[in-house]
């Protein structure tokens, strides 16, 4: 049984069809990439999956539960977390506080208004583990706003990871990261635990082909192709789409 | 617990510890009971304003909800406390205070659903609207509220049956200060809790807050309700210490003054409302004694200057001054501490 499945997902904005008949099936533990040229509807699909947008038609199944009607924070509790293409961080908080926020929320202490932050060892131990995994230890007490961009990108993923998702959606994680910090970021993404299913939305073909074991190609709001990397690389339609885009550019 | 985990929790615990500035602030606040007995009336007003401003700081400084209608809660609880005492429903002032606060919190809970939607501007209008409606209702039902003449014939029983509200306001001031302190403790505790941290996150970025599983609306409702309760306690205090309640408890001016207090004192560090209230009240008092008719001109002038210069710049100018005050406070506490421990050994 796939861990995440969409059945005939469709989204219209008035007369514009942003996504139609998107049926994805993602296996547990997969490294699945969703690619497509600009305007193909990748962001629409991720917004539908996470509940920022409601689909016009279709269903979304997460680990056997129909989550189509659930609100974003409810989907997080059921095991799906995402990162954002443009950093969505808490600029006034430190990485420690940011990660702590997600951890204590998941462990159900988020509405606890009497105990001090950090007074539960289960929470602090987990915060430390995540901070270390994402190489944020030496800057964990700095304000997020002043961190280098690469570290902010790492924190972006750490924050989603702190929700302990079964499915982690990475929306262009490497976008805009300078070369000097890029290796650290890619290595960290590569070291994500195998039992976490990753859906990668990416523009950067090097990253996609080095990371993904399965690739779905989205064109004009619909799925063009779904297959193993070699298959996708060989497919003449995919070449045409990307070649066409390059010719346009 | 792991070694690093311990380090993190002790770091967080250290941060929540009382700073020397805070200790000196409260020691001085309580010392005013004995130091300035002749100023107790204005100090009482200041303490009430400070609690009222604290209530706004909780939603504005921590959850990012701007409001022009805190007077709705202040006034509702003020009238509640007045009516409870007038008709001798609850005689004990402390119990009446809690009851009035609970009534205000209930109104806060109900109206919180209105402020969940929309931007800052809609929130300003909605909160203002609620306060205006309550003000008109109080005016219309003058058989209950006394209308423009105010609610008269209130007599407040002694606190715990022992401490009478004297005409110089000595007990009244002590009462207000203790209530302020207790409310402050609750607020402070809340701010350093996971709940408080989640509020700061959803103020900073509600989209991401919900993307990591925080139920944003529920948190906003909770803090709005608490804030309304605090505003209500402030309003009930005013009725109790003055044994009077009139329509101006619900006025727009009262809500607007509160924003001024927070502009002066700053938001989001809990002391903004307290410090702002002290500066505002004493500035008002001083200006009113200089120019009894035109003092509001100077209040307006000061505000325009503060806003034009910008708080950041004022803060950077006063950093040196604050640092030296901080060092001074630290020395005071350091000197007091050995004396304390010596005294406790003596017992």
Count the domains of chain B: 1
Order of helices and strands of chain B: HHHHHHHHHHHHHHH
Share of helix among residues of chain A? Answer: 25-40%
Identify the CATH architecture of chain B. Answer: Orthogonal Bundle
Q: What general form of chain A does the structure show?
A: globular
Let me know the number of strands of chain B: 0
Largest interface: A-B, 47 and 37 residues
Radius of gyration of chain A: 19 Å
With helices defined by DSSP (H or I, 4 residues minimum), what is the helix count of chain B?
A: 15
Q: Any idea what the CATH superfamily of chain A is called?
A: P-loop containing nucleotide triphosphate hydrolases
Count of distinct structural domains of chain A: 1
Q: Mean pLDDT score of chain B, rounded? A: 89
Strand order of the largest sheet of chain A: 7-8-9-4-10-11
The first-level CATH class of chain B is given as Mainly Alpha
Percentage beta strand of chain A: 15-25%
Mean pLDDT over the full residue set of chain A: 90
Query: Mind describing the biggest β-sheet of chain B?
Result: none
